[in-house]
Amino acid sequence: MSVLLGVDIGGTAVKIGLVRACGEILVSETRSVNFDGYKTPILDTVVALAREVISKSPEKPDGIGVSATGQIDVHSGTVIGVGANLGNWLGSPIAQTLREAFALPVTVINDANAAALGEQRFGRAKGKDNVLVITVGTGVGGGIIEHGRLIEGKRGIGGEIGHFSIKFDGERCPCGNRGCFERYASTGALVRRFTGNPDLLAVLGVAPEAVDGKVIFDHLEHPAVAATVEAWIDCLAAGVISLVHIFNPEIVLIGGGISREESRFIRPLRERILGGVMPQFAKGLLVEAAGLGNSAGLLGACAYFWQSMGLDGNQ
Fold first, then answer.
1. Which listed residue, of 105, 111, 178, 210, carries a Cα 20 to 30 Å from 59's Cα?
2. Same domain, 107 and 130
3. 3-class DSSP state of 56
4. pLDDT averaged over every residue in the chain
5. Same domain, yes or no: 146 and 253
6. Global pTM?
7. Which residues lie closer than 8 Å to 55 by C-beta, 6 or more apart?
């Protein structure tokens, strides 16, 4: 199966493309899924856009690999958990809907796990068998690859690294627990440090709703801003150090928009991680920004399809 339809479903948009085994994306399109406040079911938008993409390509797909937001039961291809209000997304039968619409085999995987597989097959973790990918955004997601295989757990929902606790008596998390990693280490957590502090907000000179990672990093010359960002990086490093001690990866990749800040984010984070792990864990350990950007989920969804079907993508 040399060409697949890759589908990457997020909370705000879906990206669909035809993907060759080498990682070449022949044609792709992106469309909003919340254009009317989720009144139109997300899967309706996905199916309509998939038909358009297929119609534009001279090569037709032999299967469909899906990356999707939420907790995904990989056996049924169904959304069994969501971390945000996404209309009627919970319970969506992704695999069944796409199989019926296109008469093709379908696999479905969580988007963060897909990003890990995409980086391993096509990105900066290519050739590595033990990989930890962490996506830093509104929350914290990730995927763990051990001996070349994704750690999925019983139902395919393993690897929820945003929800292990780094502070047992810490902030309450929407998941119901306290002190979750993402409550302290996400870009969303960094933004909350500023929007909840009038003095820091005054330094940025913008309204609370305008604060994002870029605005914050654009003001790093101010000592109070720099100190706040340093404290946030400390939280992220603490969680990654714990994960390195558990999984002993060859490479840690950091994804999300903030990962473009090499000198002001990736470099200090790398220094903290390599300086904080036990010496034998630090030997040969690479800590880098993820390389695939917005294509990670799309490519990873296809990688998961080939892996699940026991194919190398060239058959």
1. 111
2. no
3. helix
4. 93
5. yes
6. 0.90
7. none
